[in-house]
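User: I'm new to structure prediction. If I give you an amino acid sequence, what do you actually give back? Let's try with this one:
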Amino acid sequence: MTFLTSPTERSTTRDHPRARDAQGAARRRNDADVRGTRLPATFDVTAEMEEWARRNTPDVAQSATDAFRDYWRARPDPEGRKADWLAAWRGWMRREQATIERQPGYRGPARQTAPIAAIRIPVEAMCRDHRGHRAATCGLCRSERIEAR
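Assistant: Good question. You get back a string of structure tokens that encode the predicted 3D arrangement of the chain. For your 149 residues, that looks like this:
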């Protein structure tokens, strides 16, 4: 510990160990904020996260979150740190959705295109002999008529 020998000397943090310790702790906290943290062991999907996923990534399954957890827990220390894990999870889910949408044959999320009432066929329009077929277009009745000739 250095003592002041004259009134013109300035006191510095080197002169006071407590001030130096406080500054070191603050610097370590700021470094952790800048460098980020590892994925918390208790990283679970909350209700808000589920709602966000339903709206923004409807085709992505729960297994994508499991893959996210496994990937980031397995990363080495410098690369396995993030400042905002929620933002990292949302980005992961968006990329998974984009991957699904790029696959051949993707037609988008399932949607009801016709009103339910239009799908139901009245009983009178159904074929009496062949369940599930319309009477006017029943191919089975038509083939039976052709065979009968």
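You can read the tokens as a compact description of the fold. Here is one thing that stands out. Residues 121-148 form one domain.
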